[in-house]
Amino acid sequence: MWIFLLMLSGWWPVRVWAQTPTPLVPQSLCQGITLSPEKPAYSPGETVTINVSTAGEVNNIGVRYIQATRNIVREPFVSQGIQGSFDANTQSWQGSWTVPANGEYLLMVNIYQPDGYVCAGNPGYLCPGCEQGVLAGGGQASTVYTTACQGCHKNVVVNDRYGLTSPDDLKEYMQYEPGHSWLFRGTTKYCGGEQRTICPGETRTEFMTRVTAEEKVNICGYILQPVRFYKDKIEGYILPNTATNFRKLLTYFDDSDIYEGVDEKEERWSNLTVGKVINKHYLWEAQAVNKLGTLGWETNDDYYVSVNRHLTDDGLRAFDLNYHAPHVFGQRYVVDGQKMQFIDTFYPNYFNDTNGDGQISYGDTNGDGYITWKDEGNELCDWFYRGNSDPETGHGTERFFGQQVTFEPQVTTPAYQGSAIRLTLIEAGMPKAASLSAAINFEGTDRWHIREDWIFAKGIGRVKLLERDCHVYNSSGAIIGTHSDCLKDSQGNYPVMSEPNLEMNLVNYYLSGPLALALTSGQTATAGGVVALSLTSQTGPYTGWLEIKDCLGSGCTPANQRVWYNTWVQAGRNSFTLDQNLPPGPYRLVVRPLVERVPEYYAEFKNSEMVVTNTNLPWSNEVVIQVGLDLTGDEVLDIRDVWRVIAGYGEEDLPADINGSGLVDVFDFNAVVQALY
């Protein structure tokens, strides 16, 4: 570099060589952090002893904790300190910790060095090697949070139900198994449109919702249970400007080891918890004829992107979701009054930082006019960890999630009356609060704040859903308070929801049994004619798609199994058109509900979902349609049709000339008699 020196003759440039700063070398080393007693999980309120050992140049040690799903790099940092004492002779620390509420927590060791730096055991920073620790504190500003050190942290699971079972198994209540489906009738105060507003005069709109459980899939190495949600009206959606059908991919109390030959990861979370790893959105098609069976195309809208995921997996950091599933809904064994609360981070898309500039790339790199995971770098399974979940950056969003379990002695819906389990779910966008307590209490938040009650009946599934916006608004739309339905009482319990904005009640459901199939348009038909069917399950009229097997001829066995496309069953009714080239004879068919699978157009995408189950539902009873054999036109095949053949025998009797030979002959007679007897 050049500098200028003032000399007797004036200013003269002099070249000097800049000194390279001495590379920063962390001076300390965390050798370990242990808890006594050491257990897989702890109970709230339990007291444990924490011991930390270090080496190197150490002036002091501190230990802090934070809920593991909380943002752990954004300022202000809201971790909590743990009281303890430092022994300079042994360079160790010991403290006592009262275990907090149910959840997963991250214990982080801070080692104070003589040079003013702190080796922080915070694993959330992205610099190379910083998943073990990062230099913080004093010293050169350019090196703070950018230089790795040998810190340490520990994951702690808090679960007052760990290892306990009860007669109430949430899996028996949810019933999310491939092929199951549920049909709901709903009413809502919400008006469709870009704003989530209450209709004038609180007018309620009726709508229908259909929920189906697909075949299980392997997505990015995890075995998940997809569940679809269809609506027939835009008013049935609870979010503004989001007329989208959902596919929620759930962990659902599963162990991936049971799927032989499937390349899967070992789940970090327990198979005794259920949660939502991914939520996919599909454009609701207003023009679709069968809206309750039309998923739509996956969305790629800038406002409402196509995928929300609740898990990061970069192979280096695993400080959260080591027991409770992502966006946990509940634990398998529940008791009345059970409560949980978490801070969940969800990432609003799967797009990658393709050029390394720290920003998500939304580039249409393949030039097809769409931004999807077909574009280079936008890999579905790039579940990269960003270390940041600030909603203003678009990298991720934090939200509070609370759950309360309540046993209901009596629930009444059109399809079910009896006892049930109510899951009260509180969800809110995290406000910019200076403390964790303020964030959890939603003080002054202007972000979303909703309550949903999911009510499940044992052996059936969800039978009712209630929802409301927790905000109270003035006449100009400004938030002025929180509705009493969303406030806890003195015992910390939420009340029964008194004023739902949206309500759904079960009207029918299907759980794996054979359909009862019957003809409603008569036993006979002509080639090219329309046949009407009724389809009823053990619980009532069936709604959904079908698979079919069929054959033509006396004594044949239905075969040629296939999906019966364009044949939708609504409330137990279905009609279809026979092939106009179908020859005369008995047409036999059996059907069964279609177990939906990942949409077929995904096959061309990178890292698409792979189906890992093949559910064989039972087939219906067989029905026989006599094609071209109703010679009297009364839609019944009986002895009168035999007489009609006899009367025209040997004549050019066109209706009775079944085989088209030009004359009524013995073959026509045999065709009618064999079909009849």
Q: Measure the end-to-end span.
A: 107 Å
User: How many independent structural domains?
Assistant: 4
What number is the mean pLDDT?
79
What is the 3D shape?
A: elongated
Helix content: under 10%
Count of discrete alpha- or pi-helical segments spanning 4 or more residues: 4
Total strands: the figure is 40
Low-confidence stretches: 1-23, 301-305, 350-363, 369-378, 390-395, 432-444, 602-606
Describe the SSE topology:
Layout: E1 2-7, E2 10-15, E3 28-36, E4 47-56, E5 60-67, E6 80-82, E7 84-87, E8 92-98, E9 103-112, E10 117-120, E11 134-137, E12 153-158, H1 170-174, E13 181-188, E14 190-191, E15 197-198, E16 205-213, E17 217-219, E18 222-231, E19 244-250, E20 273-283, E21 307-309, E22 328-331, E23 339-346, E24 397-413, E25 416-429, H2 436-440, E26 449-457, E27 461-469, E28 471-473, E29 479-482, E30 502-510, E31 516-519, E32 524-525, E33 530-537, E34 540-541, E35 546-552, E36 559-563, E37 573-577, E38 585-593, E39 610-611, E40 623-627, H3 639-647, H4 666-676
Parallel strand pairs: 32-40
Antiparallel strand pairs: 1-2, 3-4, 4-8, 5-6, 5-9, 7-8, 9-10, 9-12, 10-11, 13-16, 13-30, 14-15, 16-18, 17-18, 17-39, 18-19, 19-20, 20-21, 20-22, 23-24, 24-25, 25-26, 26-27, 27-30, 28-29, 31-33, 33-34, 33-37, 35-36, 35-38, 38-40
Helix pairs in contact: 3-4
What does this molecule look like?
With 677 residues, this protein is mostly beta strands. The chain folds into 4 domains: 28-158, Immunoglobulins (Immunoglobulin-like); 170-358 and 373-509, no CATH class; 513-628, Immunoglobulin-like (Sandwich); 629-677, Orthogonal Bundle (Type 1 dockerin domain). The strands form 8 sheets. It has a 15-stranded antiparallel β-sheet that branches. Strands 5, 6, 9, 10, 11 and 12 form a 6-stranded antiparallel β-sheet that branches. Helix 3 (639-647) runs antiparallel to helix 4.
